[in-house]
C-alpha cells in the first residue's frame, strides 16, 4: 500500500469512526460513506499520484463530477456521493485539519423528486386478508404486515423490536431508529389484535426479540432483514403487479394515507422518525398529484 493510500485511508478511517462513535450513524450509513470515499480516493490516485485529500483543489472535484456524469450515474447517486465528500471536508475543516474547505461553493446536484410506490387503501385491506391466521406462520406474517402499515417503521427497525418495548395498554412501541434515535410509534386496533395473538404463540416465548431468527443456532438473534423482505414481497405480489413495491412501500402507504386523511405533516414527520421536514414533504406531493388527477377526471374545463 502506497504512502498516499495510507494517509488518505487514515483520514477516511478517522472520519468514519467519528460518524460511528460520536454521531452514532447506522452500519448502512457508514458503509455508504466508506464506499463513496474509497471510490473518490481511487479517482484521485488516477488523477495524480501521491495527492492527499488535504491538498485537493476545486478542479479535482469538478472533474470528479464530470467523471460520474460520463459514467452514467443517476442524479440521486451523484448527489449522495457529493454529499459524502462535503461531509468529510466539513469534518476536516471543523477539526482544523485543512485551512479552507474546497467544497464550500460546490453545490449538491438537485435530484428530481420521484413519487414513492405505494398501495391504495383497498389494496391494503386485500393484503391484510391474505395470511392464514389459523397457522402460526400466518399470524407472524400478518403481524409483520400490520406493523409496517400501522406504525410506518423501517424494515431495519421492525426486525430489532424487543418485546419489552411493546406497551399494549398504551398501544405503543418504543423504536430504536436511524442513528440510534428513539421514538414512539402507535399501534392501530388491527395491528394490536394480531400482535397480541402472535405474542401468545408458544414458539415466541423465549427470545427477547419480537421476531426471532429462523436459523436454529441463532435463535437468540432477531430475524434477518432479507427474510422479512421476502415474506412481505410474497404477499405484495398477490395484490399488485408493481414490481417496484417493497416493504418500504407500506411505510410510504402509512404516511400517504395519514396525509390524505388530514394528518398534520409535522406529526407525520415525527411518526416516521424523519430528521428533516423536507423528507416528509414528498407525501404532500402525492396528495397534489391525486388532486390533479381528480380535477382532470371531474372538472368540465380539464
Main-sheet strand order equals: 1-2-3
* CATH level-two architecture of the largest domain: Orthogonal Bundle
Shape: globular
CATH class of the largest domain: Mainly Alpha
Q: Might you state the CATH topology name of the largest domain?
A: hpI Integrase, Chain A
Structural class: mainly alpha
Tally of separate helices: 13
Show the helix and strand layout.
Layout: H1 3-22, H2 27-47, H3 58-70, H4 75-94, H5 121-128, H6 136-151, H7 155-158, E1 166-167, E2 172-176, E3 182-186, H8 189-199, H9 225-239, H10 247-260, H11 265-272, H12 277-280, H13 282-298
Antiparallel strand pairs: 1-2, 2-3
Keywords, separated by commas or semicolons:
hpI Integrase, Chain A; mainly alpha; 4% strand; DNA polymerase, domain 1; single chain; 2 domains
Explained architecture:
The protein has 302 residues and is mainly alpha-helical. It folds into two domains: 3-94, DNA polymerase, domain 1 (Orthogonal Bundle); 121-297, Orthogonal Bundle (hpI Integrase, Chain A). Helices cover 57% and strands 4% of the residues. It contains 13 helices and three strands, in the order αααααααβββαααααα. Strands 1-2-3 form a three-stranded antiparallel beta sheet. A hairpin with a 5-residue loop joins strand 2 (172-176) and strand 3 (182-186). The radius of gyration is 23 Å and the shape is globular. It starts with a helix and ends with a helix. The model has no long low-confidence stretch (mean pLDDT 86).
Amino acid at each position: 500500500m502506497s504512502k498516499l493510500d495510507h494517509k488518505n485511508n487514515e483520514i477516511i478511517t478517522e472520519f468514519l469512526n467519528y460518524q460511528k462513535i460520536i454521531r452514532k450513524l447506522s452500519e448502512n450509513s457508514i458503509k455508504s460513506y466508506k464506499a463513496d470515499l474509497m471510490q473518490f480516493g481511487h479517482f484521485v490516485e488516477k488523477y495524480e499520484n501521491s495527492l492527499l485529500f488535504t491538498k485537493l483543489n476545486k478542479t479535482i472535484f469538478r472533474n470528479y463530477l464530470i467523471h460520474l456524469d460520463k459514467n452514467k450515474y443517476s442524479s440521486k447517486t451523484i448527489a449522495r456521493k457529493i454529499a459524502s465528500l462535503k461531509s468529510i471536508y466539513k469534518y476536516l475543516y471543523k477539526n482544523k485539519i485543512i485551512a479552507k474547505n474546497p467544497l464550500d461553493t460546490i453545490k449538491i446536484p438537485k435530484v428530481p423528486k420521484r413519487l414513492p410506490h405505494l398501495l391504495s387503501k383497498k389494496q391494503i385491506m386485500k393484503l391484510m386478508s391474505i395470511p392464514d391466521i389459523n397457522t402460526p406462520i400466518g399470524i407472524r406474517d400478518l403481524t409483520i404486515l400490520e406493523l409496517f402499515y400501522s406504525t410506518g417503521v423501517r424494515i431495519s427497525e421492525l426486525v430489532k423490536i424487543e418485546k419489552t418495548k411493546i406497551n399494549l395498554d398504551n398501544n405503543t412501541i418504543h423504536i430504536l431508529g436511524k442513528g440510534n434515535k428513539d421514538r414512539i410509534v402507535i399501534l392501530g386496533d388491527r395491528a394490536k389484535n394480531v400482535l397480541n395473538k402472535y405474542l401468545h404463540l408458544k414458539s415466541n416465548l423465549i427470545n427477547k426479540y419480537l421476531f426471532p431468527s429462523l436459523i436454529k443456532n441463532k435463535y437468540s438473534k432477531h430475524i434477518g432483514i432479507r427474510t422479512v423482505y421476502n415474506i412481505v414481497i410474497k404477499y405484495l405480489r398477490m395484490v399488485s403487479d408493481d414490481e417496484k413495491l417493497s416493504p418500504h412501500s407500506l411505510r410510504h402507504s402509512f404516511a400517504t394515507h395519514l396525509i390524505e386523511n388530514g394528518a398534520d405533516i409535522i406529526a407525520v414527520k415525527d411518526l416516521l422518525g424523519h430528521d428533516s421536514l423536507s423528507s416528509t414533504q414528498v407525501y404532500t406531493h402525492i396528495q397534489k398529484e391525486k388532486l390533479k388527477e381528480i380535477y382532470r377526471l371531474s372538472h368540465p374545463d380539464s
